[in-house]
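User: I'm writing a tutorial on reading structure tokens. Could you give me a worked example: one chain, its sequence, then its tokens, then a sentence or two explaining what the tokens reveal?
Assistant: Sure. Here is the example chain.
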Amino acid sequence: MLSQSQPDFSWIYVKQDGEMTIGAGHSDDWEQLERQGNPYHADYLWVKTAGTPYVITDPAIVAQIKTAIMPMQQQGEKMQVIGEQMQQKGDAINSQTQQLLLNVATDKEDPKIQAEIDSLSASMDMLGQQMDELSKVHESLSNTAEKQIVSLAQAAIKAGTAIKAS
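And here are its predicted structure tokens:
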């Protein structure tokens, strides 16, 4: 996913263990960082602006970045839970539908299966509404976090605390 507000600005937050869970950049940037691992042995922010990549390892700036992205990550975790629930409901609907089709093919009627499908569908609709609401909040949190990250990164580049990356 690319930066919404800054088309010429990419960023990826890299954890000490090399895990990259959040950012806005081209897939080849993500792949390159994944290949190189974490040579800094600390959490850092990788940014690319005007085609030039930088790394920000300053603990004070990294702490501010963590604070900026935390609400967005927490919202994303809530969305993941709802997504998993939707997957389970979808699998159950599929299973019940297969059974319903099998019953139709063999002239067996089981009203309980249709009732179960209807119940699962209603539950899926409610989860979908919850996901829509969570998505709206997540988008707002993402925009806020990204503005903070752009500001922090630009300040670090200007102050010389961002290291040019290769």
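What the tokens reveal: The CA atoms of residues 104 and 110 lie 9 Å apart. Strands lie at 9-14, 20-24, 44-49, 52-56, 162-164.
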